[in-house]
Amino acid sequence: MSTSSGRVNRGPAAASENRQAILDAARRLFAARGYHVPLSAIAKEAGVGQGVFYRHFPTRLDLALAVFEENFAQLDAICAAPDEHTFGRLWKRMVELTIESAAFVEMAVDARRSMPDYTGPQHMLALVRTALPPAQAAGLVDARLTVDDVLLAHRMIYGVVATAPEPADIGPAVQRALRLLAPRLGPS
């Protein structure tokens, strides 16, 4: 009598596929259910066992950091060849990622508390420092705007996302906040 479930254990040959499946599942579930979604739900969604899951990502923070690096890769690509429009593209994608992935802002806060050498905030600072001056020089963004102002505005947008009473309220609330910020940050 066979007790096989039909799945074949491919062992180490499946490691990269398993890792990617976990990352994809984590991105979906973090976005849908927040940063504190049970890790067992992510493993189940990815189609891997708990052992496989924890071999790849021993902690929630390890997993979230790996997923978050994909966000930074997108932002890095936007800033790769800065021109006067880079800030607008960067700001737009930062807002989109905040709406799509509010869990990752929670992760960054958690990382700052538990990992003193986490460089995410410095990475974001460097991206804004790259993108902002050309937009200001072109008159697309208020010349008095500082990098700290932009990062504060980003935290404000996160606050709107995190405190929305219903998921359906997030988009309209963020658009309203962006209209309030538009005089300084430029069109949204």
Rounded radius of gyration (Å)? 19 Å
Task: Assign an overall shape.
Answer: globular
Q: Flag low-confidence runs.
A: 1-6
- Report mean pLDDT, rounded to a whole number: 85
Helix content, binned percent: over 70%
Number of strands: 0
Strand content: under 5%
Largest sheet: none
Molecular structure report:
- The protein has helices at residues 15-33, 39-46, 50-56, 60-78, 86-100, 102-114, 120-137, 147-163, 167-185.
- The chain is mostly helical and 188 residues long.
- It has two domains: 11-58, Arc Repressor Mutant, subunit A (Orthogonal Bundle); 60-185.
- The longest helix has 19 residues, at 15-33.
- Keywords: DNA-binding, Transcription, Transcription regulation.
Q: What descriptive keywords fit this protein?
A:
9 helices; 2 domains; 0% strand; 188 residues; Arc Repressor Mutant, subunit A; disordered N terminus; 72% helix; mainly alpha
List the helices and strands and how they pair.
Blueprint: H1 15-33, H2 39-46, H3 50-56, H4 60-78, H5 86-100, H6 102-114, H7 120-137, H8 147-163, H9 167-185
Protein name: AcrR family transcriptional regulator
InterPro entries: Homeodomain-like_sf, HTH-type_TetR-like_transc_reg, HTH_TetR
GO molecular function, one term: DNA-binding transcription factor activity
